[in-house]
Amino acid sequence: MNRTTLSLIAAAGALAAVTGFAAATAPGSGDGDSAKAAARLPVERSSLLCPAPSSSDLAETAYTSYTPASKESGSSGKAALSPATRELTDSTGSGKDKGTADKPVLSPQKPGKPVAGESSGAESPALVGSADGNLAPGWTVQQTTEVAAGTGRGLLGVNCSAPDTDFWFPGASTAKERSDYIHLTNPDDSAAVVDVQLYGANGAIKSDVGEGIQVQPHSSVPVLLSTLTDKPQTNVTLHVTARSGRVAAAVLAADDKLGGDWLPASADPADTVVLPGIPKDATSVRLVAFAPGDNDADLKVQLASPTGRISPAGHESLHVKSGMTAAVDLGDVTRGEAGSLILTPTGDSAPVVAALRVVRGKGEDQESAFIPATRPVGARATVADNRAKGSTLSLTAPGAAGTVKVTASAGTEGGTPVSKTFTVKGGTTTSVQPPVPAGLKGSYALTVEQVSGGEVYGSRMLDVPDRDVPGVPMFTVQTLPDDRGMVSVPHADQDLSVLQK
Length: 501
Description:
mainly beta, globular, single chain, 5% helix, 5-stranded antiparallel sheet
């Protein structure tokens, strides 16, 4: 291998550290040599986008930013989360750019210290943000909105997400009682072109309206899903793909009777799927799954309870036809004990995406939230905006027992971090009140790190009392996937500073 090739490898490694992408094996080297040479380095830049929080004049939104402290990530950095551009239309119909003159909503200063901001009303815009240096690895922003009344009332929570080109949303709806919007936000300097495709119980739903949606630079576009079809369907799977550029995507689902919440994208299609953190008092749980490949999926459905795996009576298995959305109502599947749903393949089964809609309460007093399939907590996962009361942490080990360390950060206005270790038995779910910082003032972040054993999956439920619905708290659930703040970068054993021909 000549020095020119080696220099290109080194450049690729440097790019990986900056963007968060990394090569597992250097070209031309054996697997063993690559594993020996690879180094774990923090990413040097992160991007996050938050959708416009609500169309309600009663909406009150809190933003909380947090970056875990890390010895490897250097001593300096900067971050900011600012309003996206709003597009205006003049009397001639031509577009005008309002710009982003508004000051940042959040300006984090250092790792290990959460920062909070807020907005109110229906005019709150989407936010576009970036972080670099020591504020980039594991940067997390939680958007939490309280809507006291009306369609979509409740606690609407979402982790602001990184831009990408491909998203799956099982669990969306175009039914008359639902008002589901897909929010598309573009962080870049050029326009993005996005296709939105719906799949119902009988396959793809034909629509020309969802093709070639233009999302202008640094702007956000909401699309009402019911406008993409003439025939309402209760359960659909939404596929968002960017033809050019990249976007962040999230579905705001609002129900006339069940309140509302954000439906985040499912994890990538997989043979085994974990949906962690069904509340113990859930009165209704609906599973929606979709097989995006050419083959059908046959799945074993199990609940990981506090004592072990249980097959729900009458719902022990699920057949998902290729390209068609499958949905099943599991009722009060937890029966008073918090749990997590685990889908595993039986025989020759295709990969799937999946999500749960979870309802608490009965009759007129009901609230809902969503739990998408997620990745394991891995090296580190973080969720911001925890309060002194109202946070519940669910941890699931679908295979072998696993041990994690949970750290509560300092508060936004004061407090001392504390940590606690939890061991989750294989095939079970542990639901606990997370540690709270000593002398807490404001809100705080939770960081979960894998210590040993089998993979652990997690979620955080946040609830607050609802003045208008006595006895039924408004609530939201956020999953805890690995934050991918560290990447593997091949190490060069030679001095590549001089390029020789």
